[in-house]
What does this fold into?
Amino acid sequence: MKVLPAVLDDPAWLHGASAFSTVRTRQGTALNWPAHWARLAGTCVVLGLPAPETELPALEAFAWGLLRVTVTAGGTFALHRPLTPGPRPTAGVRVVLTDIQPHPQLAAHKTGNYFPYRLAAQQATAAGAFEGWLMDTAGHVVDGSRTSPVLEIAGRLVLPLGGLPGLTRAAFLDGQKYETGLVSAAELTEVTRAWICGAGVGIVPVQEISGPGLRLGLPVQWPETEDWGLVWPG
It folds into this structure.
């Protein structure tokens, strides 16, 4: 048995007492940082953490990067890595429904209490899918393990209620009409198109949603955009 390093004897590591946001970067520039800062600051208020610092450090000029900004009681910390997700999935991606629920008080926040999303991602990987959607205890779609869903139902764009207010999704929907509401697993048969949205992937169309008693094929439509925050990085 190893002795726990003193640096890890801290609520941020022992109890997940931290908040974070993941920001896409392009050639060393953080994209949409003011919106990320504002959401992160709101989470810090909820968790009783200090406000995040506003000024970012100098960033490596990666062609595409992911900057994780984490806030703990000890301050604000930045970790910048290259973003290399691989070839663009031209045919769209598969999504599976998982049996994992997010924390009911923390689902609207990115915190160190992140294990439900890791479990959902593990289920997606085991099913050979790109993404796994978390459900609430009543069987409604809530969120993705690493992305935010957008559903088209009867010609309306619908955001499932109860998950993280995704910033990449918000940028995608800017200027478009949409609504937020409960979407049960049974109602997914009415979906005509779907997308997943996240800093690491941009906006990606879903070609199939599967789950218990469900296997729904969907037409694939990539958004027509050159916005660096919305395209597939690569």
